[in-house]
Amino acid sequence: MPSRLNPYLSFDGDARQAMEFYADVFGGTLTLSTFGEFGRPEAAEADKIMHGMLETPAGYTLMGADTPPGMEHTPGNAFAVSLSGDDAAELRGYWEKLSAGASVSVPLEKQMWGDVFGMCTDRFGVTWMVDITEAPAND
Length: 139
What we know:
- The structure is a single chain.
- The chain is of the alpha/beta class and 139 residues long.
- It has helices at 15-26, 88-99; strands spanning 8-11, 29-34, 49-55, 61-66, 81-85, 103-110, 116-121, 127-132.
- The chain folds into 2 domains: 8-66, 2,3-Dihydroxybiphenyl 1,2-Dioxygenase, domain 1, CATH 3.10.180; 81-132, Signal recognition particle alu RNA binding heterodimer, srp9/1 (2-Layer Sandwich), CATH 3.30.720.110.
- Helices cover 17% and strands 35% of the residues.
- The chain has a 4-stranded mixed beta sheet with strand order 1-4-3-2, covered by helices on one side.
- The chain is elongated.
């Protein structure tokens, strides 16, 4: 298997809901493992997600988990997940689902560099950027 780079998101107790939401947005196979399955049967953490992985038909992999007990969850804006490409219908579909109930900082519209771009922060505090590359005009 070749090396790959993919985002791994941390959540404060709502990883299951977030990962299920992303599975609804992108489709694919979602695998969730709880702390209880790996020897942490304490009631408060047994059902929390120790590791989640979504593998999509488009080839995206998104991972996430609840912050482990004893570690501080410090969400921030130091990262964003970027989706880009030239399949406008696919990317607009993702945008519609991700931006529903989200805080939209940049509406999905044509930008000065020629692409259609939008940015939102979803209900789980994750910032998403969608960039649709416009096909060059034939001269």
